[in-house]
Amino acid sequence: MRKWKSYRTSTEKTEPYPRSSHHEKSPPVTHTAGVVLPFGFAIIFGAVTAVLIVTAIIVSGLAVSGAEQRANYHSETEEGRHARLKMAAVFFCAALPSAGCLLITLL
Known about the structure:
Elements: H1 29-36, H2 41-60, H3 66-75, H4 78-106
């Protein structure tokens, strides 16, 4: 088996992370994200919240008229209804953290 040669001497001091001249002058993360993404965090959180809530409404069946809702109620099984409403609740609960971040961003 080959032994690997160490290139460090025992007198060298090592740092856990190499330092560079631009280390102290790096831009903040929000500035970097603003350069990469041309829109603010409020738009991101708002879009994610809107998509998740609209998905929850569509999955739950609330976006149909009363006659269609009544027909769907009588044509599906109780297990299917519970599964559909549980999935809608999951989408709605997934929208809550994003909605909270949206409120924090806007305030």
